[in-house]
Amino acid sequence: MADSVDQIFVHAKQWLMSPLEGHIPDCLIQIVSSLLNIAAVLGVFLTLFALMSVLERKILGRMQNRYGPNRVGPFGLFQPVADGIKMLIKEDIVPARADKVVHFMAPILIAAAAILVLGVIPYGRNMTPFVIDGGILFFFAVGSTTELAVFMAGWGSNNKFSLLGAMRAIAQMISYELPLIITVLPVVMVVGSLNPDKIVFAQESYHFGFVPHWFVLTPWGATAFILFFVSGLVESNRTPFDVPEGESEIVAGHMTEYSGFKYATFFLAEYLGMFAVSGLAVTLFLGGWHAPLPGLGFVPSYVWFFAKLSVLLFGFIWIRGTLPRIRVDHMMNFAWKFMLPMAFTCLVSAAVWHYSGRRLSGWLWSFAIIAVVYFALSLLLDARRKFTPRTYRFAE
Amino acid sequence: MMSPFLFWIFAILMLVFGAAVIINRNPVASALSLVVSFFGLAALFLSLDAYFIGVIQVLVYAGAIMVLFLFIIMLLDLRAEELRKINWIASAGGIAVALALMFQIFSVVEKFPAAKQSFPPLAKPAPDDVRQIGLLLFNNYTLPFQIIGIVILVATVGVIILSRRETR
Amino acid sequence: MITLEHYLMVSGMLFAIGFAGVMVRRNIIIILMALELMLNAANLSLVAFSRFHVNASGTPNYNAQIFVFFIITVAAAEVAVGLAIVVALFRLRQTTNVEDITALKF
Lengths: 396, 168, 106
Fold this sequence. Notes:
A: two-stranded antiparallel ribbon; B: mainly alpha; Four Helix Bundle (Hemerythrin (Met), subunit A); 6 helices
C-alpha cells in the first residue's frame, strides 16, 4: 500500500503512456515521455512559485509585525492570480535606444535556464525527470548561462543603471560560483558519481538504527552545506546579497528597463533558481527523498523531498526578513577570502573522513581540520580589520 | 546517435551563428552569436555520445570564456569601432584564402573512404563516459593533467600582473 | 544517414569561418573569437573521430576526448591572457584595432 502511494506518479505516467505503446515509433514515445515530465515539473514549480510569492509576503509581514496580503480570496491566497493578471495587462515598454532582440531574449533565456536546471533533481523514488550521468555537471553548466542572460538584460537595455546592475550581478555570480561548485565536490568525491540519483542512494540507511546517513551530519558536510546555502543565496540574488538590484542604489539593476510580463519572467526565474538551488542542497546534503527516521518510510518519498525543500525555502524567507543588504566590496572579500578557502578545506576534510574508514576517528579528524582552518582564517582576516570612522569622499 | 534532422539543425545553427560572429560590426552582437554557435556545437557533441565534453563545452565556454569576453567589451566600451571603413580588397582576399582552405579540407575528406561508413554502434547500456574519462585522465594522462594545472596557474599570475594598474 | 564525413565537412566549414575571421577582421577581440571558432572546429573533428573509433568493448576511444578536454582548458587560459593583453594595450593606446598597432613595423 505504502509502496503504491510512493510510486503513484510513476504509475500514473505509465498508465498515460500505455495506450501509445506499439502504435507509434519509439522516438515519438520518448518525446511524449519527456513532454509529460516537462509538464509535471512546470506544473509543480509554477504552482509552488505562486504559493511561495504569497507565503513570502505573509511571513515577512508577520516578522515585521503587520498583516501580509489578505484581501484577495481566503487569507489572501489568490493574490498571485491578481498579480499575474496585473502583470499581463500592463503595458510592455521597450526603450527606444535598446537593442530590441537582446532586450527581448534576456528574460526568455534566464527563465529557460532556471527551468532546465530543475530537470536533473530527483524528486522521489524513480522520479527524476531527466536522468543523465553528469547531472550535477549539467546543473552548473546550464546554471552558468544565467550570467549571460543577466548581461544581455543589462547591456540590451542601454541604461546606466542596468549596466551597473549587470556588472555587479555578474561579478558576484562568478565569485560565488566557485564556492558553490567546490562545496559540491566533496559529496561527488565521497559518492564517486556525478549522478544525482546515486548521490541520493548513497545517503540511504541509518547509523545505530536511527541517525540517517545524510552528509549534512558529518563535519565536512555541515560546513559544505552552510557554504553552499550562502552561495545559493547569492546566486539567486536573495536579500542579504541582492546588491545587483539594490533598489535604493541603482533602481532595480538589470531589470530597470523591464515592465509587465518580462519583469514577471525575471521574478519567476529568480524564484525558480531559488527552488533549484534548494533542491540541489536537499539532494546533496539532506538525503534527497529519504525519510529522516527509519519508521517513517511509509510516507511517500516526494513528500519528504518537498518537506525538506520548504524548510530551506523558509530559511530563505527568514534570512530576508532578518538581515540588511551587504556592501558590494564586503561581499566580494567574503567570497574570495573566506568562502573559497573554507570550501577547499571541506574537500580535504572529506578526503580524511573517507580514507579513515568513515569511523569516529575520521569524524574527529575532519572536524579538527575544519575547526583549525576556521579559526586560523578568522584570526588572519580579523587582524587586518581596522575600525576607523568611515570617511565620505562625495558627501558631508 | 541522433536523427539526421537534428544533426542538420544544429550544424546549420552553429555555422550560421559562427558566420555571424565575423560579419557583425558590433562586438557584443558577435560575442552573443558566438555563444549560440557554441550551444550548437555542444549539441553536436551530445549527438556523438560525448556527454561530458558537451556539458564541459557549455560550462567553460558559455559560463566562463564568453562572460570574460563580454566583460572586456563592456569595460572597453567598443562602440566607436563600428564606424570604421572596411577595406574591401583585403577582405575579399582573406575570404578567398579561407574558401581555398575549406575546399582543400573538403577534397582531403573526400579522399578518405573509411569516412563514408556509418558510425559503429556503442555497447548497451551507454558507457559512463565521465567515469571513463576520469580514469584515463588520472591513470594515463597524469603528467599532462598536472602540466595543464601549472599552465592555468601561470596564466592566472600573468593576467593579474598584466591587468594591474601601475602604481607610482 | 549521417557519417563521419558530414561531421568532418561541418568541422572544416567552421574552421574556414574562423580562419576568414582572423584574415578579415581588424578588431583584436573579434580575432580572438575567431581563434576560438577554429579551436572548436578541431574539437568537433576530434570528438567525431573518437566516436568513429569504437573499442572492442563498445566504448568510444576516450583518448581523443581527453585531447578535447585539454584543448578547452588551454583555450580558457589563452583567452584570459589574450584579453588581459588587450586591456593593457587599450590602456596604452586607446584602440583594439590591429592596424593602429604598428610599432614593430619597419
